[in-house]
Amino acid sequence: MPARAPKPHAKDRDTIWQQIATTLRAEIAAGTPPPGGRLPSEAALAARFAVNRHTVRQGLGALAREGLIQIAQGRGSFVAEDVLDYAIGPRTRFSEWIRRHNREPGGQVLRLIEIRAEASVARGLDVAEGSPVILLERLGLADGRPVSLTTHHFPAALGAGLLDALRDQPGISAALAAIGIADYRRQVSRVTARPPTAEEAALLRIPRSRPLLVAENVNVDAAGRVVEFGLARYPTPRVQLVFEP
Amino acid sequence: MPARAPKPHAKDRDTIWQQIATTLRAEIAAGTPPPGGRLPSEAALAARFAVNRHTVRQGLGALAREGLIQIAQGRGSFVAEDVLDYAIGPRTRFSEWIRRHNREPGGQVLRLIEIRAEASVARGLDVAEGSPVILLERLGLADGRPVSLTTHHFPAALGAGLLDALRDQPGISAALAAIGIADYRRQVSRVTARPPTAEEAALLRIPRSRPLLVAENVNVDAAGRVVEFGLARYPTPRVQLVFEP
DNA sequence: ATGCATTTGTTCGTATGTATG
DNA sequence: GCATACATACGAACAAATGCA
Fold it and tell me: Could you identify the residue whose CA is nearest to the C1' atom of nucleotide C10?
């Protein structure tokens, strides 16, 4: 005989595992644990709700099928990240992207200097190796959380005041407009993924186990001249790239 | 005075390090080591060619400047991956993609069954949860090397003979054509990246440290009806996604 | 490299309430 | 009332994956 008779479930009420799912759903919606955070172990939840571990698993399984959490053997259950969709279009601008998600755009300039083009940059910008280029490195924020780490290269030949414009203007579009480039568009993006360096992981606030999405972009002006060649790094799975051909 | 006088090299012949570079270049072209593979250590190469390690380093440096190999301190030298550019367009087809790179397309079906749609699939296919869907899992090969692992979902309601068509026809386009869907196009792709599972790493023959590019695709027919919802996984850095808006 | 602790995944068995015929 | 099938719930044990010292 078992130590305690199993509680029957009334037919007009939710089952125990449904109640557990409802409770956890509400708590996750309230932010505990936050997106990306870990739920207590199944054993801990079983103790908290005073039920068998199987019953907890039923509830967690429901949340996982809904996509609200992800369960990983040996690691635990994790609240799904709230994904920022980055639409790769010919005219995507950082601040517009963030605002479209009802987040507060922000950013900080990490580096802004003039250097000589090395081989890969020269090829991307279609200028001679060793030509003067302006390098801008920037950390993009949405609601204060890092969502992008971008390195931009501009040919210094674009205009004498570019370095100053980039320093004074809040965004790249504004800086280019200030030196007379009213419009530009994305010509091509090459996307791959790799583990972050220690520095990248620290700046983007992700564990080193999460890969980065890496996009190599070429932007051209109305005349087809290359005005920017850049490397954008996005933390996964916080950011997702979306292409609508 | 040195123990042994340095051998002069005849001016009309390659230097020793150039000969070494030439030898290694030929061997790499022949596939040993294969792309992504590790070359013997500098010490081992020095022993093999009966030269000083510095001489080997000269040769390896030349190959690295060519981009044929990558040298990583403390790890070794590795043959560069031959990157396959996957152009994400509205009508990209697997076999065309591979052939455009002058590779031999191939593939093997891992699974082909009818199941019930779970939440995420139902959302992607725009059908009710639990609806019958056909699942096709396929490993894509280029010259016998794995380049993609794709899971396709088709609404069973598309046509009664779809399962048989997918079994009998060599490709997806052909199977869809066989049940009367002459044309379809990619409506949207959502791209992210994550570490591979043990199974994915084994199938795609990559170490678990290399992330996968993961693309979620929705394909629609001429009338805008969703005919396929799929998840494509590509090994990095063997495959790169290219978008030309 | 190895073992250990933690956590999820799976499979036994047992018991009870609900629905069906 | 009874037999049956099914979902729910509990208990125990072991397997498999992961992270860490």
Answer: A54
Distance from the Cα of B83 to chain A's closest Cα (Å) equals 10
Judging contacts by C-beta atoms under 8 Å, the chain B residues touching residue A244 are: 187-189
Domains A10-79 and A84-243 share a fold: no
Query: From residue A146, how far is each of A128, A157, B190, B214 by CA, in Å?
Result: 34, 32, 20, 22
pLDDT at A50: 95
Statement: residue A30 has pLDDT above 90: yes
> What is the four-CA torsion angle of A232, A236, A240, A243, rounded to 10 degrees?
60
Euclidean distance between CA atoms B22 and B18, whole angstroms: 6
**CATH 3.40.50.150 correct for A84-243:** no
pLDDT, tens digit, 9 for 90 and up, residues A178-230? 998 988 999 888 999 988 888 888 899 888 888 899 999 999 998 989 999 99
Highest mean pLDDT among B74-78, B117-121, B190-194: B190-194
- Would the Cβ of A22 be found within 7 angstroms of any atom in strand D? no
Q: Where are the domains of chain B?
A: 10-79, 84-243
Q: State the pairing for strand pair B84-87/B239-243.
A: parallel
Q: What is the mean pLDDT of residues A159-184?
A: 90
CATH number of the A10-79 domain: 1.10.10.10
Question: Measured between CB atoms, does A194 come within 8 Å of chain B?
Answer: yes
CB of A48 within 8 Å of a chain B CB? The answer is: no
Å between B235 CA and nearest CA of chain A: 9
Contact call for residues A27 and A49 (beta carbons, < 8 A) = no
pTM, whole model, 2 decimals? 0.79
CB-based contact (8 Å) between B195 and chain A?
yes
pLDDT tens-digit readout, A114-146: 999 988 889 899 999 889 999 999 999 998 889
The count of other CB atoms within 10 Å of the CB of residue B239 is: 26
